[in-house]
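Researcher: Here's a chain I'd like modeled. Treat it as a single chain, no partners, no ligands.
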Amino acid sequence: MNKWLLCICVLAGPLEAFAQTDLSGKVLVFPRESSSDHVNLTVQLEKPLQQFTLCLRAYSDLSRPYSLFSYSSKDKDNELLIYKERVGEYSLFIGWQKVTTRTLEEFPSPAHICTSWESSSGIAEFWINGKPLVKKGLKQGYAVAPYPRIVLGQEQDEYGGKFDKSQSFVGEIGDLYMWDFVLSPEQIQSVHKGFSPSASVLDWRALKYEVEGYVVIKPRVWV
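Model: Modeled as a single isolated chain. Structure tokens:
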């Protein structure tokens, strides 16, 4: 009997470590500026990305630059990076190249941010609070490398680490979804309203993650 109980406990441990968590209605709170606090996201990406859409909600009162989503490959730390340069200015990095787009924003206020990119045309799009910004183009014909390290709260300067306090995120992040295709305008509007189609890469309703340092999960109380 005792041997069977021990066997069950040993098998249960690793399964719990990789359990999927439904974070609907909740946010990850990054309460302080640091060079260590972050969240690692686990994905199964074994093939290069030819296109993608990524959406998330963020609330911060920072006016300095900070990372919103850091995807690092073994060869490039800025393989895929969503970065807020300043109020109303958002950048997308693909394979170390960068495009920046601008919008009018209230500050501080919550933002719903979607960005997409496709290799065939190189076109990158940002949608902020359901409104499309000017399209830009970069890395036409490129493929985003697989087997990433994905980090929230910090910007990776090497694969999985080397964080800079001055680029850290302070605030709240929620409703993060990522697809391996470009969503239609109608689908992005639906996501903005809170109705997300099943996400193939990252899904806030079934998220695999690991907290490192001072990050807290709390109910989302803002729209």
